[in-house]
Design a protein that fits this description.
The modification N6-(pyridoxal phosphate)lysine is found at residue 35. It is an enzyme of class 5 (isomerase). Pathway: Amino-acid biosynthesis; D-alanine biosynthesis; D-alanine from L-alanine: step 1/1. Residues 223-345 form the Alanine racemase C-terminal domain. Substrate binds at residues 130, 292. By secondary structure, the protein is of the alpha/beta class. It folds into two domains: 10-212, TIM Barrel; 224-352, Lyase, Ornithine Decarboxylase, Chain A, domain 1, CATH 2.40.37. Helices cover 29% and strands 22% of the residues. The chain contains eleven helices and 19 strands. It has helices at 10-22, 35-39, 43-53, 63-73, 90-95, 105-114, 135-147, 166-179, 191-195, 318-325, 329-335, and strands at residues 5-9, 29-30, 32-33, 57-60, 78-81, 98-102, 121-123, 152-154, 186-187, 204-205, 224-236, 241-242, 248-249, 254-259, 276-279, 282-285, 295-298, 308-312, 341-345. A seven-stranded parallel sheet has the order 3-4-5-6-7-8-9. Strands 1, 11, 14, 17, 18 and 19 form a six-stranded mixed sheet that branches. α8 links the parallel β8 and β9 (186-187). α10 (318-325) packs across α11. The protein binds pyridoxal-5'-phosphate. Pyridoxal-5'-phosphate is lined by residues 33, 35, 82, 156, 190-192, 206-210.
Amino acid sequence: MATATLSIDLDAIAANWRALDRLSDPSTQTGAVVKADAYGLGSKRVARALAEAGARRFFVAVAEEGAAVRQALGPGPQINVLGGHMPGDTEMIQDLDLTPMLNSVDQITRHLESLPGHPFGIQLDTGMNRLGLEAPEWEAVAPLVLEQGPELVMSHLACADEPDHPMNAAQLAEFHAMTDGIGVPRSLAATGGILLGPDYHFELTRPGVGLYGGRPFVASHPVVGLSLPIIQVREVEAGEIVGYSCGYIADQPRLIATIAAGYADGLTRRYSNAATLWDGETPVPIVGRVSMDLITADISHLQQIPRALDILGPMQGVDDLADVAGTIGYEVLTSLGHRYARRYVSAATRGQM
Ligand SMILES: *Cc1c(COP(=O)(O)O)cnc(C)c1O
């Protein structure tokens, strides 16, 4: 039995990075967010492809992720840790030359005491209320912190995927109020912020999802394909059931294909009787419940039994699938399981694992 295959187009990721880079002024640097194993696609391969495209500043969520990226990239590129400097991370931050984005007075103290002179950045809270120093805290520590020469001062937008949301302008104003005149490179924009225009770009942008073909960067090149092999095909009579809980009852004789992937592979049960698979350009409905390792689909209308059906590909992207499940492309990507054979596609290394 062939295994389900996740194909990841590294050239498309590089093209998306260049396209996002072109959306800001040449004086603005474009970073790359590769947290959560590059949104589930493999941070080592992805980081290398992005470095080749020209990215020099990478962002991960936690120090362990930074270790994998450093291993892939070698010395040189800056690897920023969004979670900052956590207790127990000091050695890794030092040994692997990671740059923590300090987000509290506690973290600033920890960093300056344990690794004096080691590069760091600062994260400010401009209204999202998730991570970072708030204005009064920043005001209190800014003179001391700025003396130490931070690499970057950054904040994050809560509603950048909604261009008309008043939060965007409010956070922009707060960021200016907190940072104007500090003489340190600044960063406010992720993918959504880049699309809001030059006011939001500052010295560095930090795209993530747009690199991987997700909204709100609708002009992105598709990056992932997911092809699921058919294990078995059977005829069911009218009135027969398919799968757990009699999730589907045939209204007429049907040809049912059983497919080798399920919710343990990140294909949520919400796709039960709802999502579509594709045989080339022909839609094939999922019928019955998605189970842990198997999905059933009605292929009665196909002329030939294909070897596999696609759930992600040219006919259906991560956001289309996310819409079916009532979630976002980010979650579809980061849910993709570990059982898939991963095929990285690029002009240089076509087909390598
Ligand atoms: C995840 C994240 C990003 C990237 O966001 P996208 O919407 O995926 O572009 C940038 N900055 C911070 C702080 C993040 O947490």
